[in-house]
Design brief:
Elements lengths: L1 E7 L2 E7 L5 H8 L18 E4 L2 E4 L12 E3 L13 H8 L9 H14 L5 H7 L11 H10 L11
Parallel strand pairs: 1-5
Antiparallel strand pairs: 1-2, 3-4, 3-5
Length: 161
């Protein structure tokens, strides 16, 4: 067992992990942060995306032991200080960018990462950036619309597909 200490959603946490413990397992089982989902176990779906040191990463491919000292942000850390939904989360709700909700945490985390590096992306840039996240319910149109709205763009004239 290895002791790891990291900052998760702005709070210092530590725990004992086996070398094979994935970050997603440490978050869900060790810390009780179940907002990060395990969708495919093969790094294909993107449901497990978190931010590691500010960069989006699939937490099902990262070993917790390798992240000693890292700063992790999960979907739970995306809310405003008062507990209300953050900008990206609110845009997903306002523009129906979710249905079953299983992919939503990963979509929100990836979308926030995109907006951090490209504050006003085009529709095609959003679609390209989210290629590593799979949604089986929405058809992506409202997800793209939500990301554009979160960037402050007027989406009222975007037609439904």
């Amino acid at each position: 067992m290895t002791k790891v200490t990291m900052t998760v959603n702005g709070k210092a946490v530590s725990g004992e992990v086996e070398g094979r413990t994935l970050l997603v397992s440490f978050l869900r089982e060790g810390l009780g942060l179940t907002g990060t989902h395990v969708g495919c176990d093969t790094s294909q779906c993107g449901a497990c995306v978190v931010h590691i040191n500010g960069n989006p990463a699939k937490s099902c491919t990262a070993f917790a032991a390798d992240l000693d000292g890292a700063s992790i942000t999960t979907i739970e850390g995306m809310a405003n200080e008062d507990g209300s939904l953050g900008v990206v989360q609110q845009a997903f709700q306002d523009h129906h960018g979710l249905q079953c909700g299983f992919c939503t945490p990963g979509m929100v985390m990836s979308s926030a990462a995109l907006l951090a590096v490209n504050p006003r992306p085009t529709e095609m840039e959003v679609r390209h950036y989210l290629e590593g996240n799979i949604c089986r319910c929405t058809g992506y149109h409202n997800i793209v619309k939500a990301v554009l709205a979160a960037s402050g763009q007027d989406v009222s004239k975007i037609a439904a597909e």
